[in-house]
Amino acid sequence: MRVVMFGYQTWGHRTLQALLDSGHEVVLAVTHPKSDHAYEKIWSDSVADLAEQHGVPVLLRNRPGDEELLGRLKEADPDLIVANNWRTWLPPEIFDLPTHGTLNVHDSLLPSYAGFSPLIWALINGEREVGVTAHRMDAELDMGDVLVQRAVPVGPRDTATDLFHRTVDLIGPIVTDSLDLIASGKAVWTPQDRSRSSFFHKRSLEDSRIDWTWTAEELERFVRAQSDPYPNAFTHHRGERLRIVSATVSEGRYGGTPGRIFIREGDGVVIVAGAGARSGRLPGLVVERVRTEDGSEYAATEYFRTMGGYLTAHP
C-alpha cells in the first residue's frame, strides 16, 4: 500500500519507523513544527528528521486543510493515512481521501480517555490498565471503529514515565498488525461503546496544582502521574512554589488540617491530607523528595528542617 503519515513527537516517530519497516511505501510525512510547550518538549523524537533520513517528503503544518497540503495529498494518492499524536482535528477531505481511510493510533484503551494526556489522567484516576488503540478516524475525535487494541497493567508504584515506555513499545506491533489486516482484507472494525466514552482536555499548569483535601491515596497517584520529565505536581511553602518529586502513603493515621507539615515517618515527612483528616482516621502523604523553583532537589527531611506550618495551593 501507499501510505501517508501524520504525526508528532516520539509517538509519531515510532509510528513512522513501523511504517518504514513494514514493506509498504511511505509516500509523505506531515508533522508539526517544533514547539516550546512544556508537554511537547519531552518525548520529542523528530518525525521530520526520520522521514528525511529515509528520503520521505515532509510537510510541516500547525493545522491541516490548506490548498497546498490537499494538493500534495492528492498527488501522493495514498491507499491509507496513518496518524499518531497529530495535535489538531483532520477534516473529512483528508481522513476520507485514501481508499482505506485513516487509521489513528491513540495511547488509551478507547472508548475511555479519548483526547489528550490519557496516561496521566488514567494514572490520576487509579486505572488498573492502560494501552494503545488503532481505530478508524471519523469526524468525532477518537471515536471511530476499533481495529486493534492492546493493554498493559498499571503497577502500584508505576509512574507516568513507566507507562509511557510500556505503551510506546506497543506502537510498532500495533501498526504492523493493523496494516497486515487492512492489506489482506481481514480487518474487522468494531464500533466503540459510546456509553463508556470519556474525553479529557490538554494539561496546563493549573492541572498540576495540589489540593490537600484530596486523600493521601489520590495525591500519591497525582505525584506519580507527573513524574520527571513531566512537569511535577506542585504546592506552595512560605509563598514559594515547591514541586513534589516523590511521595508515598503514610503507614500511620494523622488528624488535623489538610496541608499541615506534621511529622517525620520513615524517609519522609507527613503532610496531613484529605477533607476528613480532622477525624484522625486518614493516612497522610509522606513527601520524600522536593524540588524548588531554582531546580534544586532535596530530601524532604532535609528541606523541612522543622515541623509545623502549611503547604498551600496558592502563595
Automatic annotation (TrEMBL):
Residues 206-306 form the Formyl transferase C-terminal domain. This is Methionyl-tRNA formyltransferase. It is an enzyme of class 2 (transferase). One of its GO terms (molecular function) is methionyl-tRNA formyltransferase activity. Keywords: Transferase. Its EC number is 2.1.2.9. It comes from Streptomyces neyagawaensis. InterPro entries: Formyl_trans_C (IPR005793), Formyl_transf_N (IPR002376), Formyl_transf_N_sf (IPR036477), Formyl_transferase-like_C_sf (IPR011034). It comes from the Bacteria.
